[in-house]
Design a protein that fits this description.
Largest sheet: 2 strands, antiparallel
Strand content: under 5%
Structural class: mainly alpha
Helix content: 55-70%
Radius of gyration: 20 Å
Distance between the termini: 13 Å
Number of helices: 9
Length: 252
């Protein structure tokens, strides 16, 4: 069992390191692999936006999709609009063009959600007793992963300012908060609370939140894809360590 856990952590660690290297390369060089897919498809120095917005770039019409939210915490985040009306922050989401659900980068982004499904099922399948607590944790974790895939698929497929994407976004908020709150409740019931979770798991959790916030800072294109991918991977790794503290029979 210990060997199994070490192998799983090794795979997750290598995956996170690979995505971290990709994120670093994406923003150190304009010729990185993330940029090469789009370098000839957008005007220079313009944020990624919809084809409708690109048509506006050729005219002198105002383009609300290229405005920015002037907020103290996220001054460079892209404003999200619908029918010309600015959306509230909770309904806004990143425009990921030129990447779509059919491009390699878009597919890799979607794959970063798969570890949530692994964490949700691994302990349920390997535990000798499927307790109600473990069942609830597994179902909530799997739901969070599936809904996240659905939301980000819609985000890549439909593009900006679409009701279909906002529906899945709100559900993504709900499922992510559900597993986070339930995990916090279970951790609070441990003998030593959060101290029973490994140091690596706690650090991964903190780093994942940092990556989430950094991705929101510039909520567009390659920046968001790279940092939000790390949010997925690091939070899944932290979730694995939490589940290990909660459900590993060798620790009871």
């Amino acid at each position: 069992m210990i060997l199994q856990h070490n192998n799983i952590k090794l795979v997750l660690t290598i995956t996170i390191l690979l995505y971290s290297a990709a994120a670093t390369q994406a923003f150190r060089s304009p010729n990185s692999f993330l940029h090469r897919s789009s370098i000839n498809r957008l005007p220079p120095h313009q944020p990624f936006t919809s084809s409708k917005s690109l048509r506006k770039l050729s005219s002198n019409e105002p383009n609300p999709d290229l405005d920015h939210r002037n907020t103290p915490f996220f001054p460079n985040s892209a404003k999200s609009t619908y029918n010309g009306v600015e959306s509230k922050w909770i309904y806004s989401y990143a425009d990921l063009k030129p990447e779509t659900d059919k491009t390699p980068i878009g597919a890799l982004f979607l794959l970063t959600n798969v570890p949530f499904l692994f964490v949700g099922t691994y302990f349920a399948l390997t535990s000798p007793v499927l307790s109600p607590t473990l069942t609830t944790f597994s179902v909530l974790c799997d739901l969070a992963g599936l809904v996240s895939i659905w939301y980000h698929y819609n985000q890549l497929h439909y593009g900006p300012n679409r009701t279909e994407v906002r529906l899945s976004l709100i559900l993504d908020y709900c499922t992510a908060l559900s597993i986070l709150l339930y995990s916090a409740y279970l951790i609070n019931g441990l003998e030593n609370g959060l101290n029973d979770v490994s140091l690596v798991g706690r650090i991964s959790g903190l780093l994942s939140v940092a990556c989430l916030a950094i991705g929101w800072y510039k909520e567009r294109g390659d920046w968001y894809l790279a940092w939000h991918s790390l949010w997925h991977l690091l939070s899944a790794f932290g979730g694995y360590e939490v589940a290990n503290a909660l459900f590993d029979p060798t620790k009871s």
